[in-house]
Design a protein that fits this description.
The complex is a heterodimer of chains A (232) and B (101).
Chain A (H helix, E strand, L loop, with lengths): L8 H11 L3 H17 L4 H10 L3 H9 L7 H21 L1 H4 L4 H9 L3 H12 L6 H25 L14 H16 L4 H16 L4 H15 L6
Chain B lengths: L4 H24 L7 H8 L1 H16 L2 H17 L2 H19 L1
Helix pairs in contact in B: 4-5
The chains are: A mainly alpha (232), B mainly alpha (101).
């Protein structure tokens, strides 16, 4: 059974501390997004606003790629929805842990969560620690600030950085998820969700334009997990 | 530099779409009771997301990326040091790309 959730200052600090693990990935990614924004004619203020408000690396990268003037607003919104639909699942998965907390303790953290700190939060509860919504908020805060700052830096100085592929920086996100997979796989009851997610994501990426494959893979994989239920 | 009105409007909408995705899952689950089956579904989401992100990267990548994934998982498995595993994987990818270039 899950433990009684809480919201503590200690959780905020612990989240901020552990969230620093994600900062290098965000900064490297942010520099690239800032550089792309500059090449599409966005001003520094515009990319700062976008990073702080839309605050989604993959979605910003994808929308900037289709960014032309006059702005194709409908296509841009659809791109954000395709890229961020997975957040609906991630957000839903927090309900069993934080469902009984007052909304003001949970929603600020939800408003600024991303893949990285959500994964850290899930690992906390997966390893038996008490669910603390402060952790989600603290780890989110140490993501949104460097994220926004690094896109601004990328806009201003991106040209002099050179190709990030040379240093393997484009691999940071993949490395982070591979590292995270170790703890989850150790505790997983079955690897069916992993295999189904891989198969569906790869197939959908080949057949459907846009970034829908992330949501499709995560949804199909997690539903595969629901096929097997522990006997009470 | 300034913010153009049409860009401001577009970014406002994009942010709302983003926020809606972040908040709606948790909010909607208010109306779903957490049966053992629903619980099993929610618990499988982390591992499913990992598959959905890494699957295409592995399939679209080559030996440097495969080696990088192996190093990330191997170092984490034996040392439990996240930072070493992450940085080691990226360094491996960079070296392998340089060796193959």
């Amino acid at each position: 059974m899950t433990q009684t959730p809480t919201f503590t200052w200690h959780g905020v600090v612990d989240g901020a501390h552990k969230g620093l693990l994600i900062a290098p990935t965000l900064i490297a990614f942010g520099l690239g997004v800032g550089l792309l924004a500059a090449s599409k004619g966005l001003s520094v203020s515009e990319i700062a606003l976008m990073s702080a408000w839309v605050y989604a690396g993959g979605a910003q990268m994808a929308t900037l790629q289709v960014w032309t003037e006059p702005l194709p607003v409908f296509a841009l919104v659809l791109t954000v929805l395709a890229m961020n639909a997975r957040y609906i699942l991630l957000s839903a998965s927090l309900r069993p842990y934080f469902g009984t907390l007052p909304f003001w303790q949970v929603y600020p953290g939800l408003a600024i969560f991303g893949d990285g700190n959500w994964m850290l939060q899930m690992r906390e509860v997966n390893e038996g620690r008490r669910p603390d919504a402060g952790f989600l908020l603290g780890s989110g805060l140490v993501m949104i600030l460097p994220w926004t700052a690094s896109t601004v830096a990328g806009h201003l100085f991106g040209q002099i950085l050179g190709d990030p592929r040379r240093f393997g920086i484009d691999f940071l996100l993949a490395a982070f998820f591979a590292v995270m997979s170790v703890g989850f796989l150790r505790k997983a009851r079955s690897i069916a969700p992993l295999l189904v997610a891989i198969a569906v994501a790869v197939a959908v990426q080949k057949m459907v334009p846009g970034p829908w494959y992330l949501f499709a893979g995560a949804l199909a994989g997690s539903l595969a997990g629901a096929l097997r239920v522990d006997k009470a | 530099m300034s913010i153009r009105p049409e860009v401001f409007q577009a970014i406002a909408l994009l942010g709302l779409a983003s926020l809606a995705c972040r908040l709606s899952g948790f909010f909607l689950m208010r109306y779903v009771s957490i049966t053992p089956r629903v619980d099993a579904w929610l618990r499988a989401i982390p591992i499913a997301l990992i598959g959905a992100i890494l699957g295409p990267i592995a399939v679209n990548g080559g030996p440097p990326e495969w080696l990088g994934l192996a190093v990330a998982i191997g170092v984490m498995h034996f040392s439990a040091n996240e930072f070493a595993a992450t940085i080691g994987a990226c360094a491996t990818v960079a070296l392998a790309r340089a060796a193959m270039a």
